[in-house]
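Bug #77: duplicate submission created two jobs. Keeping one. Sequence:
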Amino acid sequence: MIEFCNVTRRYGSKVAVRGLNLLVQPGEVFALLGRNGAGKTTSIKMLVGLLRPDEGAIRVCGHDVVKHVRNAVGCLGYVPDAVFLYEKLTGREFLEFAASMRGLSREESEQRILRESQRFQLTDFLDTLTETYSHGMKQRLVFASALLHDPRVLVIDEPMVGLDPPSVRMVKDLLRELAASGVAVFLSTHILDIAEQIADRIGIVDRGELRYLGTLAELQAELSLPHSTLEQMFLELTESNGRPPRIEEWRIRGADWPSEHKSEETH
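Kept job's structure:
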């Protein structure tokens, strides 16, 4: 489970994320959408422990990402928007390194590397230096490393960058498969068709604020645009010249936010 409770992050005088409240349940694919600079990547970096919120709290599987960062990040896998590899390592060596960082035994490491290399069609390239990989192969290798420890939460920033159509199909199927097994999937993407196809719920952020949270059908009903695409509705919300948000502050699946979060002090 992922929880953002009244989270704010600033860069100097600029507010990148303002008062973000969000709950993502196990078995859900959640897509965070927004223009460049809307606050998506900042939200993700706070979620995975790379940035600290200035106010509010973030929890992963019940662990505060500031107070108990090791426990929190141990529950999640992370695929960043920019692929980074140690290019003088082979694919196998990179995955072995990732497995050791996750505390897997040698036997577990071998089994998981075999599983993920087959899943991402990397078996024939595992013993080749990653500097020779195409961008798409590097992206698949990073996906494989993020899943070695069977995370309960998978966080992905722009998952389809550099992937060819068969790989895009493979990743879409994989995300639905992971969600069906109980994994909470949190993704950010500019490709609205992807979100429309695989996300159970979407959140739309604009100028650091959450403008909408819910299902595609709920958004169509709320905007009175029953046959519109997600792209059309996204533009309707983000080109609204600063109209007030269309969501109630605590509306999540029609239920109130858990009471313990309402009274919690920010830090």
